Design the sequence.
């Protein structure tokens, strides 16, 4: 079971990274009805994948791996979980803006967010991608027992 949940955790993490990259690429061009709908789908994937990463990861921590005591005494794990929470909170802003496009899209109109909103969304997606790199670093350190301070 442990290997199955590790596999699922990795698949969810790759899906999250892929969906963020899709959002990043789609936000580079002018918003059209088609690109806005694609961004909505990508953002839904980001949310679903992030939820899966969290749930599967916590199941691994509490039931399938070394146990909660071990992980909560690991500096890289605490950093990894903290980064994940921070990135999740950051993603609320783009998601709310993307959800606000529903009305105009139902009317067959491309959304027209102002340039400041678009810059902020792009900046947040950049931060999310950079944060994923740091999470991967923490995962590698954690897997090797670096920063463990338990008894």
Sequence:
């Amino acid at each position: 079971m442990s290997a199955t949940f590790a596999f699922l955790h990795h698949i969810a993490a790759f899906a999250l990274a892929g969906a963020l990259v899709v959002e990043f690429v789609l936000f580079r061009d002018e918003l059209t009805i088609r690109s806005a709908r694609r961004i909505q789908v990508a953002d839904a994937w980001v949310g679903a994948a992030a939820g899966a990463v969290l749930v599967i990861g916590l199941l691994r921590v509490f039931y399938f791996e070394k146990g909660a005591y071990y992980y909560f005494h690991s500096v890289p794990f605490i950093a990894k979980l903290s980064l994940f929470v921070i990135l999740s909170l950051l993603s609320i802003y783009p998601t709310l803006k993307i959800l606000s496009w529903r009305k105009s899209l139902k009317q067959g109109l491309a959304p027209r967010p102002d340039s400041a909103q678009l810059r902020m969304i792009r900046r947040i997606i950049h931060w999310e991608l950079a944060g994923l790199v740091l999470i991967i670093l923490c995962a590698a350190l954690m897997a090797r027992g670096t920063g463990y301070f338990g008894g």
The chain has one domain: 2-101+110-143. The first helix runs from residue 2 to 26. Residues 19 and 42 are 5 Å apart (CA to CA). The two ends are 27 Å apart (CA to CA).
